Amino acid sequence: METYMWLIVLIIAAPVLYVLNDKYRILEGLNAPAEEETTFKAPSAQKLMKFTKKELVEFAENNNIVVQPSKTKAEIIKQIRKK
Q1: Which residues, 6+ apart, have CB-to-CB distance to 59 below 8 Å?
Q2: How far apart are CA 51 and CA 28, in angstroms?
Q3: Among candidate residues 37, 38, 83, 44, the one with its CA nearest the CA of residue 60
Q4: Could you write out the DSSP letters of every residue in 16-61?
Q5: Alpha carbon 42 to chain centroid distance?
Q6: DSSP letter at 42?
Q7: Element (H, E) at 73
Q8: Max Cα separation, the chain?
Q9: Which of 40, 45, 60, 81 sits CB 3.0–4.6 Å from 67 for a disulfide?
Q10: What pTM was estimated for this model as a whole?
Q11: Positive or negative CA dihedral for 67, 72, 78, 80?
C-alpha cells in the first residue's frame, strides 16, 4: 500500500477503535461487551421500617452490607441506606 493509503486507514480506524474500545474493550484483548457494575439501590426508609430487626439484618447480609445487629432498628436502616 502506498503511504497515503495507510494514512487514510489510520484516520478512519483510530476514531472507530476509540469508540468501540469504550463499549467492547477491544484494545484490552477482550471481544465481549464490558461487564456492567452492579449497583445496589436501597429501598426507602419507609419500606425498611416495615421489616423487623431480624429481617433487616438478613436483608443486609444478603446484599453484602455490613451492619451491627446490636444497633437499634433505625441505626441499622441508616447503615443500609448509607451503602
Answers
A1: 48, 51, 80
A2: 45
A3: 83
A4: HHHHHHHHH-GGGT--SPPPPPP---PPPHHHHHTS-HHHHHHHHH
A5: 14
A6: P
A7: helix 73-82
A8: 75
A9: 60
A10: 0.51
A11: positive
